[in-house]
């Protein structure tokens, strides 16, 4: 059997299977659907780590490619899926309990879209993959129908997502008009041959705006806090990590490596990226400082992180691309456990307000320690995994000689400490809640939070994993050949 | 037997202590025994350093990688030796003065052990990435210690201190990045042994050196509370619980000075010389401005905070002296100041815990009620004034002699600083010793230090001050070859 697209095909099949099982299977099996979903997602994740799953024919209709970047990001998206399924299985849907099957199945379709996106090498493929992702997400964001905020989130995501798709399609149309092709490598050749025509520049701008919505870059960020706050927490995690990463994969493919590689566009697009990055990191950080709701805080913090990555992308060369890839992995490792914690907090207390963290350090020492480590990692302090990637961003900015951006990045990294220390402060030293609620964190979650914290420490002290990932992402083939280096 | 293994053991023992405490061992006893046990690998490692000059653990250096060229290795030479010992002793005594039965005891002792381990890691790291990382480890425990167990405006002090130190660290980080990227691509390394050799053979161009030196000065200077980046220090120390202030003022602050000795002086020597007039100007600010400010303090802990920040000026004078004597003096004063600051803050903590106040005017007559406390307080004050026979004097006098040729005016300023600090300290000692007993001192709760269990941390610190004061060679002897290499053209 030829393992074409294996993760994608498996994901789609698993999604269909889950829906069927939820509809047709007898009650005894139905109750097990969350377990099946989790096992399925974990199984596909493990399979995606085998090199065999990455083999693709050289060019499949010139639409998809299997290279280092896709090899790095398919496991990334699948890891997000596993976490989101685990969260979704514990999320309280209230009156909508009867449709939990769909709540678990839709992320599979969305992830299939993300995996396709990681491989896309043509704007047509990009568009199809993105729609698969987005339409599932519109449904998921509004899934908690009993909660008005969730419906509002769904509508907002729909409208803003539609707008961003509009930008993207318009950009693709201009591109085809200007360059006569939508395939990345041919576009790159055309650029190198004759320079950018005005139509292509307009196209690049429109496409950048379209992707800007996905990664929540200022000025396309306004949807993020409301949607993050309203959407069910597992979906918030998915939007914040997987969907944002998808935007960056696209940015890397389009502006980093192929199509409009910044090199071939001359310097004209780098200032745009640096300006976007400065605006994004500044607004995200400063707005996050005053948030009292954890999901809104994470939304703005996500905007700030996007800003750091855009700044890295705005610097020259492969260092910038490798940095973004490593940054995304570090962001995933630090923020998914935080969302896991928030999901559980919401389950216990019914909301994600920061006051529920009062005295958490005493009530739940294990998860609190894990959460603290992950938050400190997000703040970018050593010896946690968030530090080497922030270091890499700063080093890239210095290397490119972008002093204003460097100053802003440093200032925002310092101010960012305030964002993540606030929840820590509430957990450990604000007035301590006298009544300990009867419901506690389940033991497996305590283990997961502690393991996640330790993972952040371990990878921060020995960041070779990130180096390997960054190197792999720049590889033209999906498997690293042992070289003489 | 490979004694290099003792270096990671120095870091693993506190880690084991933290894990044991987290799992439910008795917090204070565990912390105390682990920090005492840590002296053993300390002895073994320093024996090796004294015999062969240096001791390393881990790979020497790897071929440069494009993205992240760091590798974990530890090392100890004559320069890090005294600072490692300072850390070991202050950590041990700080935990010794910690209270039993304090609220959230587990977290308290874990935080203290973590600060000590972070400082040890920073002094032992050979790779600049880990050198920086280990220092930052102490940031969050300091934030929690000041915020949870501090006095007065603890929340404000914790935020100010943390954000300020983070700002300094980030500027320092940018300086290190600049240094690294200024190297030619084939020579890029983060190992300070390799870096120092490379840069001695092919120095950077002057412009790059100056740029890096300024960034390092601001970065390290903020951590050392060099004026005008000092404002976090006095208030932070006044609010911190005594063991945290001991560790921070005694040990962590020395990281900035150690960093200048380890990075700025050997790697950007010309840049450091070019900006030494700026350093001279700023250290005058430390000595005079903070000296006069300390005269005005009416709160004992604030007085100690200001005086601790003030003495950093004298150390900076040693760093720009350009002589081995001056550098050796700076190193000796770093150790002496670490010990005397630790002693001062620990006594201040005991006094304010017993009397419930740290206002000088409320503490009159303490000497009659608690003569031992007053005795150790006087030792700390005398050390910080620079009384011969105590460690600080040895450092200061070497700095004065070593800097006289290059900076006679600054030596005069620093000598004037000794006067200022004498006035401030003697006034405090006097107001605690004499006069009618104030109501706070008469209270039932005020007792003197009793028994070995209470006295030993103070006795250990005092003994260390005397030993270094009488035999400063112990500190600067092993470091001398390293310091001489620093000044080679």
Poorly predicted spans of chain B: none
- Describe the largest sheet of chain A: none
Shape of chain A: globular
Helix content of chain A: over 70%
Count every helix of chain B, treating DSSP H or I runs of 4 or more residues as helices. 23
Protein described:
- The complex is a heterodimer of chains A (485) and B (489).
- With 485 residues, chain A is mainly alpha-helical.
- Chain A has a domain at 269-485.
- Helices cover 74% and strands 0% of the residues of chain A.
- Chain A contains 20 helices and no strands.
- Chain A has helices at residues 6-24, 27-30, 33-49, 68-90, 100-119, 123-141, 148-179, 184-194, 198-215, 223-230, 233-257, 270-288, 294-313, 317-349, 360-363, 365-379, 386-400, 403-429, 443-461, 464-473.
- In chain A, helix 10 (223-230) runs antiparallel to helix 11 (233-257).
- The radius of gyration of chain A is 22 Å and the shape is globular.
- Chain A starts with 5 loop residues before the first helix and ends in a 12-residue tail after the last helix.
- Chain B has a domain at 275-489.
- Helix content of chain B is 75%, strand content 2%.
- Chain B is globular, with a radius of gyration of 21 Å.
- Chain B is mostly helical and 489 residues long.
- The two termini of chain B are 38 Å apart.
- In chain B, helix 3 (39-52) packs antiparallel against helix 4.
- Chain B has a two-stranded antiparallel ribbon with strand order 1-2.
- Chain B has helices at 6-23, 27-37, 39-52, 80-97, 105-124, 128-137, 139-149, 154-182, 192-201, 206-223, 233-239, 242-267, 269-274, 276-295, 300-319, 324-355, 366-369, 371-385, 391-403, 408-433, 439-442, 451-470, 473-487; strands spanning 54-57, 74-77.
- Chains A and B meet through helix 14, helix 16, helix 17, helix 18 and helix 20 of A and helix 6, helix 7 and helix 8 of B.
């Amino acid at each position: 059997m030829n393992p074409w697209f294996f993760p994608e095909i498996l994901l789609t099949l698993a999604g269909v299977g889950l829906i069927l099982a939820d509809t047709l299977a007898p009650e005894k099996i139905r109750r097990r659907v969350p377990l099946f979903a989790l096992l399925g997602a974990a199984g596909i994740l493990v399979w995606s780590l085998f090199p065999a799953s990455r083999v693709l024919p050289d060019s499949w209709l010139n639409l998809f490619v299997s290279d280092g970047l896709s090899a790095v990001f398919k496991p990334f998206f699948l890891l997000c899926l596993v976490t989101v399924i685990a969260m979704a299985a514990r999320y309280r849907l209230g009156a909508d309990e009867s449709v939990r099957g769909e709540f678990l199945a839709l992320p599979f379709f969305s992830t299939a879209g993300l995996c396709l996106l990681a491989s896309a090498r043509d704007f047509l493929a990009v568009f199809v993959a993105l729609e698969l992702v987005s339409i599932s997400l519109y449904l998921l964001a509004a899934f908690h129908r009993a909660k008005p905020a969730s419906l509002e989130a769904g509508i907002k995501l729909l409208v803003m997502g539609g707008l961003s798709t509009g930008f993207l399609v318009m950009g693709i149309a201009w591109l085809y008009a200007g360059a006569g092709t939508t395939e990345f490598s041919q576009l790159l050749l055309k650029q190198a041959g004759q320079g950018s025509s005005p139509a292509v520049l307009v196209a690049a701008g429109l496409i950048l705006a379209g992707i800007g919505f996905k990664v929540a870059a200022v000025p396309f960020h306004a949807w993020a806090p409301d949607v993050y706050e309203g959407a069910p927490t597992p979906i918030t995690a998915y939007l914040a990590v997987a969907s944002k990463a998808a935007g960056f994969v696209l940015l890397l493919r389009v502006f980093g490596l192929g199509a409009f590689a910044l090199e071939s566009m001359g310097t004209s697009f780098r200032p745009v990226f640096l300006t976007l990055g400065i605006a994004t990191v500044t607004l995200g950080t400063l707005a996050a400082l005053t948030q009292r709701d954890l999901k809104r805080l994470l939304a703005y913090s996500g905007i700030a992180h996007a800003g750091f990555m855009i700044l890295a992308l705005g610097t020259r060369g492969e260092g910038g691309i490798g940095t973004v890839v490593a940054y995304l992995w570090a962001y995933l490792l630090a923020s998914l456990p935080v969302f896991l914690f928030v999901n559980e907090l919401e389950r216990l207390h019914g909301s994600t307000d920061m006051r529920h963290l009062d005295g958490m350090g005493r009530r739940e020492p294990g998860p609190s320690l894990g959460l603290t480590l992950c938050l400190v990692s997000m703040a970018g302090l050593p010896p946690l995994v968030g530090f080497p990637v922030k270091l890499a961003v700063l080093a890239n900015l210095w290397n490119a000689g972008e002093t204003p951006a460097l100053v802003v990045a440093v200032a925002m990294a310092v101010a960012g400490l305030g964002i993540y220390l606030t929840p820590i402060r509430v957990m450990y030293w604000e007035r301590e809640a006298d009544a300990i609620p009867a419901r506690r964190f389940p033991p497996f979650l305590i283990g997961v939070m502690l393991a996640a914290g330790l993972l952040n420490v371990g990878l921060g002290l020995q960041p070779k994993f990130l180096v390997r990932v960054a190197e792999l992402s720049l590889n033209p083939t999906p498997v690293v050949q042992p070289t003489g280096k | 037997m490979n004694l290099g293994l003792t270096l990671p053991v120095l870091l693993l023992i506190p880690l084991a202590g933290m894990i044991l405490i987290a799992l439910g061992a008795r917090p204070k006893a565990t912390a105390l025994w682990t920090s005492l046990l840590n002296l053993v690998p300390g002895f073994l490692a320093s024996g090796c350093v004294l015999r062969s000059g240096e001791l390393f653990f881990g790979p020497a250096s790897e071929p440069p990688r494009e993205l992240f060229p760091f590798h974990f290795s530890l090392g100890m030479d004559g320069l890090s030796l005294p600072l490692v010992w300072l850390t070991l002793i202050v950590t041990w005594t700080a935990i010794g003065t910690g209270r039993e039965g304090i609220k959230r005891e587990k977290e308290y002792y874990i935080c203290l052990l973590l600060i000590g381990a972070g400082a040890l890691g920073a002094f032992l790291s050979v790779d600049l990435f880990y050198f920086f990382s280990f220092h930052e480890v102490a940031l969050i425990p300091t934030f929690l210690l000041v915020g949870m167990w501090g006095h007065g405006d603890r929340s404000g002090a914790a935020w100010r201190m943390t954000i300020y130190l983070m700002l300094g660290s980030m500027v320092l980080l940018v300086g290190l990045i600049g240094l690294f990227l200024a190297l030619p691509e084939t020579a890029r390394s983060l190992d300070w042994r390799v870096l120092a050799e490379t840069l001695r053979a092919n120095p950077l161009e002057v412009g790059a050196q100056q740029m890096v030196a300024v960034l390092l000065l601001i970065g390290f200077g903020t951590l050392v509370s060099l004026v005008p980046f000092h404002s976090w220090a006095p208030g932070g120390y006044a609010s911190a619980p005594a063991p945290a202030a001991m560790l921070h003022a005694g040990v962590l602050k020395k990281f900035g000075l150690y960093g200048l000795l380890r990075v700025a002086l050997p790697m950007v020597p010309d840049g450091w010389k070019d900006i030494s007039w700026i350093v001279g100007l700023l250290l005058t600010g430390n000595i005079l401005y903070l000296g006069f400010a300390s005269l005005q303090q009416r709160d004992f802990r604030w007085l100690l905070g200001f005086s601790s920040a003030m003495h950093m000026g004298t150390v900076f004078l040693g760093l720009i002296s350009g002589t081995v004597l001056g550098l050796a003096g700076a190193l000796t004063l770093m150790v002496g100041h670490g010990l005397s600051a630790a002693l001062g803050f620990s006594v201040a903590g005991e006094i304010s815990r017993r009397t419930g106040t740290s206002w000088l005017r409320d503490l009159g007559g303490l000497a009659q009620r608690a003569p031992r406390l007053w005795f150790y307080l006087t030792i700390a004050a005398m050390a910080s004034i620079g009384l011969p026979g105590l460690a600080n004097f040895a450092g200061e006098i070497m700095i004065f002699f070593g800097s006289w040729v290059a900076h006679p005016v600054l030596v005069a300023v620093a000598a004037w600083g000794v006067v200022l600090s004498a006035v401030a300290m003697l006034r405090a000692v006097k107001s605690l010793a004499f006069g009618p007993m104030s109501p706070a001192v008469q209270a039932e709760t005020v007792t003197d230090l009793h028994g070995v269990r209470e006295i030993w941390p103070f006795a250990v610190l005092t003994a260390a001050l005397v030993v270094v004061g009488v035999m400063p060679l112990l500190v600067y002897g092993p470091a001398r070859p390293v310091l001489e290499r620093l000044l080679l053209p």
